[in-house]
Design goal:
2 domains; DNA Binding (I), subunit A; elongated; about 200 residues; single chain; 3 helices; alpha+beta
């Protein structure tokens, strides 16, 4: 791969098919790339710049390309969307998903777990109230809209005649990166990611 790559070209998905040339976006940090272990286990997300360096140094190999291109003065290269490390990176344990407000909202798809309303103005609810010994953990905390939170108050769902949409649990996997919890996943990546336990 040429070491004189100068930019990332942003292109609509039909740019190749209709013969048009994409306009340049001179920012190698503008897109994200999924890094797989040699075993095809997803490890991380990085910038295009980092992925290109891994490819240039033959640390990784290209697996999937996106709909963008990198240009040098003399050549054009597809922007990688998924790369795979050539050597297996052994991890001593599977990384647990950090328990925090943002990740609870992500696990619950930014929707109230009682009424199903989707909102970016949610709060957290302890299914078994803290006053009764309920823990602050994956199994006892859910996303909740303010209306349902006010209705439930310091009661259990049964006492408040409210039903959880699903039982809360720790997710087996939630895709995170240096960008934090990712709000959107590239559809190309889906076949490489384990199903999130809900």
């Amino acid at each position: 791969m040429n070491s004189t790559l100068v930019g990332v070209q942003t292109a609509p998905s039909n740019s190749v098919a209709d013969g048009t040339s994409p306009l340049p976006l001179l920012n190698l940090n503008a897109a994200r790339v999924l890094i797989l272990n040699a075993s095809f286990e997803p490890l991380h997300v990085c910038s295009v710049k980092r992925a290109v360096m891994l490819l240039m140094h033959e640390v990784a190999e290209r697996v999937e390309d996106g709909d963008r291109v990198l240009r040098s003065p003399n050549a054009e290269f597809p922007v990688p969307s998924v790369v795979r490390l050539r050597r297996l990176v052994r991890r001593p344990y599977r990384q647990r998903v950090a328990f925090n407000r943002r990740n609870v909202f992500k696990r619950d798809d930014h929707s109230c777990q009682y009424c199903g309303e989707r909102s970016h103005d949610l709060t957290l609810d302890h299914v078994l109230p803290r006053s009764r010994g309920g823990g602050t953990n994956w199994e006892n905390v859910v996303a909740c809209c303010k209306r349902c939170n006010a209705r439930k108050r310091d009661r259990t769902p049964n006492e408040a005649h409210m039903q959880l949409r699903r039982r809360p649990s720790a997710p087996r996997f939630m895709f995170t990166s240096v960008y934090g919890v990712m709000p959107d996943i590239d559809p190309i990546w889906e076949k490489y990611l384990p199903t999130i336990k809900r």
